[in-house]
Amino acid sequence: MANGGRIGRREFIITSAGAVAAGLGAACGRVSRSEIEEAAAKVGRLPRRALDRSGRKVSVLIGAGTWASAPVEAGILCGVNYWHKAERWGSSVPQAILANREAHYCEVCVDRIHGNHETGVIDEEAHYQYVKRAVERTGLRYFDDMMFHFGYHRIAELKENAGVIRAYDRLKKEGLVRHLCLSQHSYNGNTRVPDGEDRAAILTAVVEDGVYEHAQFPFTFGDEDALNQFVSFAKSKGFGTIAMKTTAGAARMQADREFMSKFPAATTPHNALARWLTTATDLSAAVVQINSLDEFVDTYSGAGKPMRAADARALEVMTAYTNREVCRLCNECMSHCAQGVAIAEVLRYERYAVDYGDRERARRLYAQLDQKGDACQVCGDCLTHCPQGLNIPAKLANTHRLLS
Ligand code: SF4
Ligand code: SF4
Predict the structure, then answer these.
(1) d(C-alpha 82, C-alpha 58), whole Å
(2) Across 1-153, where does the E strand assignment appear?
(3) CA geometry: angle at 231 spanning 228 and 237, to 5°?
(4) What is the pLDDT of residue 29?
(5) Is 132 within 8 Å of 87 (Cβ atoms)?
(6) Which long-range contacts (CB under 8 A, 24 or more apart) does 372-376 make?
(7) How remote is the CA of residue 191 from the centroid of ligand 1, in Å?
(8) pLDDT at 358
(9) Which residues, other chains included, contact 162 with Cβ-Cβ below 8 Å and sequence gap of 6+?
(10) Full-model pTM
(11) Predicted confidence (pLDDT) per residue in 217-230, tens digit
(12) CA 13 to chain centre
């Protein structure tokens, strides 16, 4: 594209006409069609790269079924073609995707049953039935990717429990799914998951096992070396990597007037983040939670664009801010709490509420915890185990107030 990825006026008119024909004509709620087109024109066409050994090309920033509808429509116009958690659309899948089904990769997330991601179990039949029902409910005809959500607790579970893989094999034979992937969290130090292991170790075993084709995992600026090494290792093996939970405090930075008063003038936290994710890492792609057209433009206009001096400086101050303010979910503190407070889970939900603007979901999940923030006795035993030096009791108390 002659103008460096921005959609030229003539091309955009053509694209828009095609989009209307494909079923994108309606306005999304109170957002008008012209506002969506204007937002898409500001972002331009997203570059694509190979996802994994399947050879599929995906936009360097993907989309999600959890987005508001206007950014989804703008994303489609910009060439976003992989949709995380597409089952969340239920019977309201965007018409533009249904009308051009083969142009989009739609993923379904499969969770453990009889509990949450820590206490639940893998169940072949339940996973099989869940995906089958999701195919019927959405009208998508098939899912491109079946994702084992939250992943394995330990390497031994990957080796010994093939329930997810058997469910996938059955669904694939019926033409209802095409590829297998997982999202992977860390379970080291988690008192609810005996012998739980770290995500980088489990992911490395997954790559070597060879059944899964790509993985999603929390990944952002300033993360530990082990995860960065895994991303490079995965790339060398043709195993796809998609970063999630990428914003790591970017929204709270923007709400912090003092922090923003010293922020590099030529960029924004989300734009610098998008540039870094898509040009300065070995990732295949990344996903960012988007709640409005403005957020879409601010973030996705950085996709595939080189880092400028202001972006590099922004990443430095953002890393320092995140280390000071935001739990990176490493789990290092968890086994040192005699009260069994689910520290990382509490602070994960704080991120949902504060950074992703999803307080309702955060409250719902927080209500399900067996030991909430108010169980903290302020004994201080966990403090020396947090590599970031976070004031854990204070954060737990604040989060309890926020989510109770
Ligand atoms: S300060 Fe609170 S969270 Fe930390 S170990 Fe003590 S009781 Fe647990
Ligand atoms: S509070 Fe600190 S040690 Fe605990 S999970 Fe968060 S970053 Fe890790």
Answers:
(1) 6
(2) 48-50, 57-59, 61-64, 82-84, 105-110, 143-148
(3) 145
(4) 55
(5) no
(6) 372/341, 372/342, 372/346, 372/400, 372/404, 373/341, 373/346, 373/397, 373/399, 373/400, 373/403, 374/400, 374/404, 375/339, 375/340, 375/341, 376/337, 376/339, 376/341
(7) 14
(8) 86
(9) none
(10) 0.88
(11) 999 888 878 899 99
(12) 32
Domain residue ranges in the chain: 47-325, 334-403
pLDDT digits (tens, 9 = 90+) for 36-95: 999 999 999 999 999 999 999 999 999 999 999 999 999 999 999 999 999 999 999 999
Cα 142 to Cα 105: distance, rounded to the nearest angstrom: 10
Indicate which residue's Cα is closest to atom 1 of ligand 2. 327
**List of the chain residues with pLDDT < 70:** 1-29
CA of 336 to the centre of ligand 2 (A): 11
Q: What kind of fold does domain 47-325 have according to CATH?
A: TIM Barrel (3.20.20)
Ligand nearest to C-alpha 376 = 1
Q: State which ligand 1 atom lies nearest to the alpha carbon of 383.
A: 4
CA–CA dist 328, 265 (Å, integer): 27
Query: Residue 197 Cα, ligand 1 centroid: separation in angstroms?
Result: 22
Provide the token pair at 398: 């604040």
